[in-house]
Amino acid sequence: MRSATPWSVVFEDLAKATGETVYMVAVSTLIATLLGIPVGVWLQLTAPGGLRPRPWLHKILGFVVDLGRSMPFLILLVVLTSLTRLILSSSIGPTAAIVPLSVGSVPFVARLVQNILSEVHVAVVEAAVTTGASTLRIVRSVLLRESLPALINAIGVTAIALLGYSAMAGVLGGGGLGDLAVRLGYQRFNDRYLWSTVVVLAVLATLVQYGFNRAARGVDRRRHASV
Protein backbone atom coordinates (compact mmCIF):
# COMPACT_ATOMS: atom_id res chain seq x y z
CA MET A 1 0.00 0.00 0.00
CA ARG A 2 1.38 3.41 -1.02
CA SER A 3 2.11 5.69 1.93
CA ALA A 4 0.59 9.16 1.90
CA THR A 5 2.84 12.13 1.25
CA PRO A 6 3.58 13.92 4.57
CA TRP A 7 1.62 17.14 4.95
CA SER A 8 4.86 19.01 5.64
CA VAL A 9 6.07 18.13 2.13
CA VAL A 10 2.69 18.99 0.61
CA PHE A 11 2.68 22.40 2.31
CA GLU A 12 6.23 23.10 1.16
CA ASP A 13 5.35 22.28 -2.45
CA LEU A 14 2.12 24.27 -2.17
CA ALA A 15 3.98 27.33 -0.91
CA LYS A 16 6.36 27.26 -3.87
CA ALA A 17 3.60 26.65 -6.41
CA THR A 18 1.42 29.37 -4.89
CA GLY A 19 4.28 31.85 -5.17
CA GLU A 20 4.72 30.97 -8.85
CA THR A 21 0.99 31.37 -9.50
CA VAL A 22 0.80 34.74 -7.73
CA TYR A 23 3.84 35.90 -9.73
CA MET A 24 2.30 34.85 -13.05
CA VAL A 25 -1.10 36.37 -12.31
CA ALA A 26 0.25 39.64 -10.87
CA VAL A 27 2.61 40.37 -13.77
CA SER A 28 0.08 39.29 -16.41
CA THR A 29 -2.63 41.43 -14.84
CA LEU A 30 -0.30 44.43 -14.77
CA ILE A 31 0.66 43.99 -18.44
CA ALA A 32 -2.96 43.42 -19.46
CA THR A 33 -3.98 46.60 -17.61
CA LEU A 34 -1.23 48.76 -19.08
CA LEU A 35 -1.96 47.59 -22.64
CA GLY A 36 -5.66 46.82 -22.47
CA ILE A 37 -6.84 50.17 -21.10
CA PRO A 38 -5.33 52.24 -23.97
CA VAL A 39 -6.79 49.85 -26.54
CA GLY A 40 -10.19 50.07 -24.84
CA VAL A 41 -9.97 53.86 -24.80
CA TRP A 42 -9.21 53.92 -28.53
CA LEU A 43 -12.14 51.60 -29.18
CA GLN A 44 -14.45 54.02 -27.41
CA LEU A 45 -12.96 57.19 -28.95
CA THR A 46 -13.18 55.86 -32.51
CA ALA A 47 -16.65 54.33 -32.13
CA PRO A 48 -19.65 56.00 -33.81
CA GLY A 49 -20.63 58.82 -31.48
CA GLY A 50 -17.21 58.83 -29.83
CA LEU A 51 -15.00 61.88 -29.39
CA ARG A 52 -12.91 60.95 -32.44
CA PRO A 53 -15.08 58.68 -34.61
CA ARG A 54 -13.00 56.69 -37.10
CA PRO A 55 -15.19 53.87 -38.45
CA TRP A 56 -12.38 52.09 -40.31
CA LEU A 57 -10.02 52.18 -37.33
CA HIS A 58 -12.78 51.13 -34.96
CA LYS A 59 -13.64 48.14 -37.15
CA ILE A 60 -9.99 47.05 -37.36
CA LEU A 61 -9.44 47.37 -33.61
CA GLY A 62 -12.74 45.63 -32.90
CA PHE A 63 -11.89 42.76 -35.22
CA VAL A 64 -8.46 42.22 -33.62
CA VAL A 65 -9.89 42.43 -30.10
CA ASP A 66 -12.75 40.03 -30.83
CA LEU A 67 -10.39 37.63 -32.56
CA GLY A 68 -8.16 37.59 -29.49
CA ARG A 69 -11.13 37.10 -27.17
CA SER A 70 -12.49 34.21 -29.20
CA MET A 71 -9.21 32.26 -29.16
CA PRO A 72 -9.34 29.36 -26.67
CA PHE A 73 -6.53 29.84 -24.18
CA LEU A 74 -5.20 26.32 -24.58
CA ILE A 75 -4.75 26.90 -28.31
CA LEU A 76 -3.16 30.28 -27.61
CA LEU A 77 -0.63 28.57 -25.35
CA VAL A 78 0.43 26.28 -28.17
CA VAL A 79 0.39 28.94 -30.88
CA LEU A 80 2.56 31.35 -28.86
CA THR A 81 5.16 28.75 -27.91
CA SER A 82 7.54 29.92 -30.64
CA LEU A 83 7.05 33.60 -29.73
CA THR A 84 7.66 32.86 -26.07
CA ARG A 85 10.83 30.96 -26.91
CA LEU A 86 11.98 33.83 -29.14
CA ILE A 87 11.46 36.41 -26.40
CA LEU A 88 12.70 34.43 -23.38
CA SER A 89 14.75 31.62 -24.96
CA SER A 90 12.42 29.19 -23.20
CA SER A 91 8.77 28.20 -23.27
CA ILE A 92 8.80 26.44 -19.89
CA GLY A 93 8.27 27.94 -16.45
CA PRO A 94 6.23 30.71 -14.79
CA THR A 95 7.99 33.57 -16.61
CA ALA A 96 7.37 31.94 -20.00
CA ALA A 97 3.69 31.48 -19.12
CA ILE A 98 3.33 35.24 -18.65
CA VAL A 99 3.59 35.81 -22.42
CA PRO A 100 0.45 33.87 -23.46
CA LEU A 101 -1.36 34.95 -20.29
CA SER A 102 -0.76 38.61 -21.15
CA VAL A 103 -1.53 38.26 -24.86
CA GLY A 104 -4.76 36.44 -24.09
CA SER A 105 -5.96 38.95 -21.50
CA VAL A 106 -5.26 42.25 -23.30
CA PRO A 107 -8.26 41.89 -25.68
CA PHE A 108 -10.40 40.84 -22.72
CA VAL A 109 -9.48 43.99 -20.79
CA ALA A 110 -9.85 46.20 -23.86
CA ARG A 111 -13.44 45.17 -24.50
CA LEU A 112 -14.35 45.51 -20.83
CA VAL A 113 -12.86 49.01 -20.77
CA GLN A 114 -14.74 50.07 -23.88
CA ASN A 115 -18.04 48.83 -22.48
CA ILE A 116 -17.40 50.64 -19.19
CA LEU A 117 -16.44 53.94 -20.85
CA SER A 118 -19.51 53.81 -23.08
CA GLU A 119 -21.66 53.91 -19.92
CA VAL A 120 -20.35 57.34 -18.87
CA HIS A 121 -23.28 59.75 -19.10
CA VAL A 122 -23.17 61.69 -22.36
CA ALA A 123 -24.05 64.95 -20.57
CA VAL A 124 -20.84 64.75 -18.53
CA VAL A 125 -18.75 64.28 -21.67
CA GLU A 126 -20.56 67.06 -23.54
CA ALA A 127 -20.02 69.45 -20.64
CA ALA A 128 -16.29 68.79 -20.83
CA VAL A 129 -16.30 69.30 -24.61
CA THR A 130 -18.01 72.69 -24.30
CA THR A 131 -15.23 73.90 -22.04
CA GLY A 132 -12.76 73.33 -24.86
CA ALA A 133 -10.87 70.57 -23.07
CA SER A 134 -8.58 68.43 -25.21
CA THR A 135 -9.41 64.82 -25.98
CA LEU A 136 -6.59 63.63 -23.72
CA ARG A 137 -7.88 65.75 -20.85
CA ILE A 138 -11.44 64.50 -21.33
CA VAL A 139 -10.23 60.89 -21.37
CA ARG A 140 -8.16 61.37 -18.24
CA SER A 141 -10.37 63.71 -16.22
CA VAL A 142 -13.83 62.57 -17.30
CA LEU A 143 -14.00 59.11 -18.87
CA LEU A 144 -11.40 57.34 -16.74
CA ARG A 145 -12.18 59.23 -13.53
CA GLU A 146 -15.93 58.66 -13.75
CA SER A 147 -15.37 54.98 -14.59
CA LEU A 148 -12.63 54.27 -12.05
CA PRO A 149 -14.63 52.01 -9.67
CA ALA A 150 -15.92 49.93 -12.59
CA LEU A 151 -12.45 49.78 -14.13
CA ILE A 152 -10.99 48.49 -10.88
CA ASN A 153 -13.65 45.80 -10.73
CA ALA A 154 -12.90 44.88 -14.36
CA ILE A 155 -9.23 44.43 -13.51
CA GLY A 156 -10.28 42.20 -10.62
CA VAL A 157 -12.38 40.09 -12.99
CA THR A 158 -9.36 39.83 -15.28
CA ALA A 159 -7.08 38.75 -12.42
CA ILE A 160 -9.48 35.98 -11.42
CA ALA A 161 -9.74 34.81 -15.03
CA LEU A 162 -5.94 34.78 -15.24
CA LEU A 163 -5.85 32.71 -12.07
CA GLY A 164 -7.79 30.01 -13.89
CA TYR A 165 -5.70 30.40 -17.04
CA SER A 166 -2.48 30.10 -15.02
CA ALA A 167 -3.64 26.70 -13.75
CA MET A 168 -4.20 25.68 -17.37
CA ALA A 169 -0.74 26.97 -18.31
CA GLY A 170 0.73 24.76 -15.60
CA VAL A 171 -0.49 21.70 -17.48
CA LEU A 172 1.86 22.63 -20.34
CA GLY A 173 4.91 23.36 -18.24
CA GLY A 174 4.02 26.78 -16.86
CA GLY A 175 4.57 25.79 -13.25
CA GLY A 176 2.40 26.98 -10.41
CA LEU A 177 -0.62 25.33 -8.85
CA GLY A 178 -1.85 23.85 -12.12
CA ASP A 179 1.38 21.98 -12.63
CA LEU A 180 1.31 20.75 -9.03
CA ALA A 181 -2.28 19.53 -9.31
CA VAL A 182 -1.67 17.59 -12.52
CA ARG A 183 1.88 16.32 -12.04
CA LEU A 184 1.79 15.38 -8.37
CA GLY A 185 -1.93 15.15 -7.81
CA TYR A 186 -3.75 13.71 -10.79
CA GLN A 187 -0.94 11.69 -12.42
CA ARG A 188 0.18 10.15 -9.13
CA PHE A 189 -3.33 9.72 -7.71
CA ASN A 190 -2.40 11.87 -4.73
CA ASP A 191 -5.54 13.43 -3.29
CA ARG A 192 -3.62 15.57 -0.84
CA TYR A 193 -1.98 17.53 -3.65
CA LEU A 194 -5.07 17.54 -5.85
CA TRP A 195 -7.53 18.88 -3.31
CA SER A 196 -5.04 21.19 -1.63
CA THR A 197 -4.46 23.04 -4.90
CA VAL A 198 -8.22 23.37 -5.39
CA VAL A 199 -8.56 24.92 -1.94
CA VAL A 200 -5.64 27.31 -2.45
CA LEU A 201 -6.98 28.46 -5.84
CA ALA A 202 -10.40 29.08 -4.28
CA VAL A 203 -8.83 31.07 -1.44
CA LEU A 204 -6.73 33.13 -3.87
CA ALA A 205 -9.78 33.91 -6.02
CA THR A 206 -11.73 35.00 -2.94
CA LEU A 207 -8.91 37.24 -1.72
CA VAL A 208 -8.46 38.82 -5.14
CA GLN A 209 -12.18 39.51 -5.45
CA TYR A 210 -12.34 40.96 -1.94
CA GLY A 211 -9.30 43.18 -2.50
CA PHE A 212 -10.54 44.66 -5.76
CA ASN A 213 -14.05 45.15 -4.38
CA ARG A 214 -12.61 47.09 -1.45
CA ALA A 215 -10.46 49.18 -3.77
CA ALA A 216 -13.40 49.97 -6.04
CA ARG A 217 -15.57 51.03 -3.09
CA GLY A 218 -12.72 53.15 -1.77
CA VAL A 219 -12.50 55.29 -4.93
CA ASP A 220 -16.22 55.46 -5.62
CA ARG A 221 -16.85 59.17 -5.19
CA ARG A 222 -20.58 58.76 -5.58
CA ARG A 223 -20.66 56.35 -2.62
CA HIS A 224 -18.66 58.73 -0.42
CA ALA A 225 -20.90 61.61 -1.47
CA SER A 226 -23.99 59.69 -0.40
CA VAL A 227 -22.66 58.87 3.06
Describe this structure in words.
It is a single chain. This protein is 83% helix and 0% strand. It has 227 residues and is mainly α. The protein has a single domain (7-221), classed as MetI-like fold. The model has no long low-confidence stretch (mean pLDDT 88).
What are the SSEs and their pairings?
Layout: H1 7-46, H2 55-70, H3 73-79, H4 81-88, H5 94-117, H6 122-130, H7 135-146, H8 148-174, H9 176-186, H10 191-219, H11 221-226
Give the gist of this structure.
With 227 residues, the protein is mostly helical. The chain has helices at 7-46, 55-70, 73-79, 81-88, 94-117, 122-130, 135-146, 148-174, 176-186, 191-219, 221-226.
Question: Which stretches are poorly predicted, pLDDT < 50 over at least 5 residues?
Answer: none
Separation of termini? 63 Å
What spatial form do the alpha-carbon principal axes imply? Answer: elongated
Tell me the fraction of residues in β-strands, as a range.
under 5%
Helical amount among residues, as a percent range?
over 70%
The CATH topology label is MetI-like fold
Integer tally of domains = 1
N-to-C SSE series?
HHHHHHHHHHH
Keywords:
227 residues, single chain, MetI-like fold, mainly alpha
